[in-house]
Amino acid sequence: LARAWVDANYRICFAKNKTDEETFYALCLHTLAGVLPLCDKDYHYHNRLKTEDVIGDLLQQTPVHFALIDAFVSSHGSAGSRLERALDTHTIIASSDPLLADWAGATKMGLDPFSSPLNAAVLRRLGQRPGGKRAPGLFHQDRRFEQPHAHAAGFLRHPHGEGAEFGEALP
User: Fold this and answer.
1) Continuous segment of H or E residues that includes residue 92
2) What is the dihedral of CA 5, 75, 108, 164, to 10 degrees?
3) What one-character DSSP code corresponds to residue 54?
4) What string of pLDDT tens digits covers the 171 residues of the chain?
5) How far apart are alpha carbons 98 and 57 in whole angstroms?
6) Alpha helices in the chain (DSSP H)
7) pTM
8) Nearest-angstrom CA–CA distance, 13 and 102
9) Which residues contact 30 (CB under 8 A, 6 or more apart)?
10) What is the β-pairing status of strands 66-75 and 12-20?
């Protein structure tokens, strides 16, 4: 890890609010891969190693002190991470806990916070749940969000059929 990240007195994660066709949503935990040192992040942190292990270790070794999700204009739909499909949501999500910020962002999009394999694994590993940390209005769904298609997400996570649902017609 970069010395600037390790030695920082205050670490901030700044994410854009967007859906993702592979993991349903890509918020703070997804963004944290950007601080990891190896250049080919897809190869090293998504294929060679388990993303959830790497991000879990990162959070335990160098905790984030402030998480911010820019949801003023969100991107939604099946390709929300790759293609901008703007949705004016006029929301900023801020928390001292990136898992809580992601939980609020997922809920705002109408998604189960555990639908992202990364977030689900890190939540289980670190044993954190939002519980009593709720604030009025924080977890209200914006029903205008178009969610990623579940079949596409399953296929992209398992392109060779491990757990993918093959033979089903997509609507």
Assistant:
1) strand 86-95
2) -90
3) H
4) 889 999 999 999 999 988 777 888 889 999 999 898 888 888 888 788 888 999 999 999 999 999 999 988 877 555 445 556 677 888 899 999 999 999 999 888 888 889 899 999 999 988 766 655 555 455 666 666 666 666 444 544 444 334 333 333 333
5) 14
6) 3-6, 28-31, 41-42, 51-61, 98-108, 117-126, 150-157
7) 0.77
8) 11
9) 15, 20, 23, 116, 118
10) parallel
Query: Which is nearest to 23 in space by CA: 56, 51, 63, 49?
Result: 51
**Residue of 107, 115, 113 lying closest to 138 (CA atoms):** 107
| Tally of CB atoms within 10 A around 82 | 11
Cα 39 to chain center, whole Å? 20
How many alpha carbons lie under 13 Å from residue 5 in its C-beta half-sphere?
A: 16
User: Contact 51/36 with Cβ under 8 angstroms?
Assistant: no
Rounded to 5 degrees, φ, ψ at 61 are: -80, -40
Residue-wise pLDDT for 78-102, tens only, equals 544 555 667 788 889 999 999 999 9
Residue 55 DSSP class: H
